[in-house]
Amino acid sequence: MIDESFATMTLSQALTLDLSEQRVVITGGGSGIGRAIAEMAVASGASVVILDADVDAIGRLPATGQLCAIHCDVADADAANEAVNNAATMMGGVTGLVNGVGIAGPTMSPDGISVEAWRRTLAVNLDGMFYCTRAAIPWLKRNGGSIVNLSSAAIARGGFPMRLAYATSKKAVIGFTETLAMDLGRHAIRVNTVLPGTVEGDRVRTVIAAAAEASGVSAEDLWGDTIAANSLRVAVEAVDVAALVIFLLSDLGRLITSQSIAVCAGFEGHRSQDQDPMASGR
Ligand SMILES: NC(=O)c1ccc[n+]([C@@H]2O[C@H](COP(=O)([O-])OP(=O)(O)OC[C@H]3O[C@@H](n4cnc5c(N)ncnc54)[C@H](O)[C@@H]3O)[C@@H](O)[C@H]2O)c1
Questions:
Q1: Which has the closest alpha carbon to 192: 241, 236, 235, 120?
Q2: Is the pTM of the predicted complex or chain greater than 0.90?
Q3: How far is ligand 1, taken at its centre, from the CA of residue 8, in Å?
């Protein structure tokens, strides 16, 4: 028989997450999904340090004692190492790391991709993740913790036409996560991948506009096609992705590690590029 107090517990009580003991580094927290994660972490009581390469985005962050930002290009190994260690010193440790930085990379046929564009996409999306994680591990080993790596639902069900560099980097995140989870589990460090679907925001609006111009389809129609590729027929909001990340940072996620979890409204997969003018931007 269910205890009465259990039966009367409300959903909001059940999902109240207290991160007041948490000290979290969030890369790419200056805008978009990373910023939503930072806001939700602060609202849940965490201390947060954002690492971001965009000075203007850093300048737009709200001033609060719980939130600081460090200007840093995560693809620069020395800068990333120094920034993570400075963040840890500022907060008195690290209990969580969210590797949120990601760039779209080139949208084109594979034989047109320049060496520079290929290397930059991998350097930011993958090398940067390694540099920040490597620097955070000694801090996380002290008391255990949680690492959350952002990949993309766009690569969860196969390839991503015209996005070779991005797709390669985001698939690699899954191997990175699963191997780290094995290497770090004995230190009570959990490692998971979150795969966002198409998230409403500046980034996707820019992509839709560019794809519309290239394909001769209206941006409105293209947006409709994009939504239609989701089983739930809605777009994802940054806050939906943030909610899962916060759960994984919290003690409620204490036995979840080595997983890849999508927040994508049921993205059903890409068709090949000649049938899918939206094969860009996510
Ligand atoms: N927006 C989407 O629809 C979507 C979908 C799937 C996956 N994702 C992934 O989620 C993550 C966040 O995406 P978003 O749309 O919020 O991106 P965004 O472009 O809005 O924000 C990314 C942030 O990272 C920062 N950044 C970029 N390069 C950097 C570098 N070298 N060093 C430090 N900071 C850097 C930017 O200044 C920016 O503040 C990315 O990894 C992205 O690939 C996004």
A1: 241
A2: yes
A3: 40
